[in-house]
Amino acid sequence: MTLASLQDRLDHLDLVARLGACLDEHRFDDLRALFTDDATVATPGGTADGVDAVVAQATRNHQGYAHLQHRLTDVLVELAGDTGAMRANLAARFATADLETVLELGAVYRLATRRTAGGWRLARLEIVPLWRVGAAPVPVVA
């Protein structure tokens, strides 16, 4: 393994960590720095094509929860030139302002990456649900 390939792997791990942080901290516009312009997303909350749609979907599905925690673990990285693939386990908790847990879920993140002029970016995100506790809808934000 070369220093360059180690750096590529670290860059991929950083993408996953930043994705979780952006969602947890409601920094949805910061997702633009993580995704390619033509990124696609397929989640239980819908599908999105293009970074603008990705940001809109993330905002719609998360903004109603005051407290979020996306725990992404066991990240596997596979690289092939200027593209990559990752798999990560997710356990997430969504809670309202009064700290009542509304929803917990477990899933697998499947991600495709592409090296761009600005570095590695997420080109595709697919969330495969595994389990769920709670059935509350996302609270509506006025």
UniProtKB/TrEMBL annotation:
Domain spans labelled SnoaL-like: 5-125
Organism of origin: Cellulomonas chitinilytica
Protein name (record): Polyketide cyclase
InterPro entries: NTF2-like_dom_sf, SnoaL-like
